Amino acid sequence: MKFFSSILITSLFFVCNCYSQGFLHREGQKIVDGNGKNVVLRGLGVGGWMVQEGYMIQTGAFAGPQYKIKQKITDLIGEKGTEEFYKAYKTNGITKRDIDSLAAWGFNSIRLPMHYNLYTPAIETEKGGQITWLEEGFKMTDDLLNWCAANKIYLILDLHATPGGQGKDAAISDYDDSKPSLWESAANQDKMVALWEKLAERYKDSPWIGGYDIINEPNWNFTGTNQNGCDETSNAPLKALQVRLTNAIRAIDTHHMIIIEGNCWGNNYNGMFPLWDENMALSFHKYWNQNDIPSIQKMLDYRTQYNVPIWLGESGENSNVWFEEAISLMESNNIGWAFWPMKKIENLAGVTSVTKPAGYDKILDYWKNGGQKPSQEFSKKVLMQMADNYKMENLTIRYDVIDAMFRQVQTTDSKPYKKHSLPGKVFATEFDLGQNGYAYSDKDVANYDGTKFTQWNKGNKMRNDGVDIVTCTDKITNGFQVSFIEDKEWLQFTVEVKSQNNFDVAIRYSSEKAGGKLYLEQDGKKISETIELPVTGGETNWKTIVLKNIALKQGINKIRVQFEGGNFNLNFLDFKTAAKSK
Hints:
Number of strands: 25
Structural class: alpha/beta
CATH superfamily of the largest domain: Glycosidases
Number of helices: 14
Shape: globular
Strand order of the largest sheet: 3-4-5-6-7-8-9-10
Helix content: 25-40%
């Protein structure tokens, strides 16, 4: 009776929530809530939690798929130690505090990349063709759903690693080419269908489940020559499986939106039409290209032609400039989005970054190059520290990325990176938050070409803007400096002046080449002379040169440091009250 009562109470909870807010669903070309209100999904993919990808923990060059990563770890710390590591890694990877933070920053949805093996064992370990279940994945999903519901955030279930693996890009789906893939095994397909049936049964009454993204980034050649399916013309096996999955889900769950993806990492929809369900959306993925209408025209055409919503289900791994452009493009066309990922080691292009633990480079070097094997005790200590570093309280939060994804989409206004009160030092890397051309001006600001990588921040430190930032070794520093300065670039600083005064501004810089020149500007007018920066004798030889008698008004001033000539590094500007002449 107690068991029956708990089910009844849970069911009543779902019913109450359904009527108050309803299920996300398709209405023509829009995604709407239960009240018919248009919903723009602003989401984040929590990649790396259930499915490790090598590049997120810096093993991509030699261990991309999770099974290879796990083998490397087991070799160092044994099976028991590996179990202990993964338990801590998953416990810390996503917590309620993470979801609370995402909600506070402005996200209204989460895309959960799931690994099937947290829910059901591999077919190779099953007996007699039966399908058994593991509680771990369902418990992780339940917890995440509860945290999302508490924050009124939609959770989109994304089967990222299918039984057997759905693509030749092995790291994405933990594909092991020594075993039958999803496409080569009826048993794997049966297991995948059973898993979605199990998920549908469990979550059919959950209104904060935003949809079922039934197969992530298939990339497989069925009849074409491109191994990732980019030249497929029919995609018959992909469509057949997605139709089968849809029918299996619909036999149980008629509420939730089903999201499909094309071949070629989600983008090749040849042969996928006509659609077969009334409550569907098309997902596409967008990386390393231009942010203009031509870049999404094919998806816009599908939306119109087939009267179906489209959703940017995955994007990211670029600069703040690219993020602002891409999100502005999506939202101006009523397209929701989910960026990628939330956490990875030394993550510049994401909302948070995991600190690399001391000693991890030694482990990486052994894994990559061999040589002397680190001790089990040392390795376990380092790896457990890594797992601890995944806790929200131990992350570095990239507020510049968050600002680009939300505030900068709405305005060209700049805002202070931090409070600067004058007199005082203003570090060069603490320039304003804002768009390129409004908070700073840099010539290389994003990667727009998937075939040739452009590094927007050449030092890959501190901020994800176009400005090049490297580690600073000067005796007085915030840890970083602006480098690779080119002619005609500039930085803007919002400063608060305590009282109207004239200031002498000490410029702390280094250079090994001649040509450096700068001046200060306010409201489009020069407020200083142009000063030449003599060669200091090397990148790490720092000197100071002074601009005298710069008049600044009391209160807020927006000062631009204009680089008339480049070829130098900038550490800080020190504003000191100028001595009054007698």
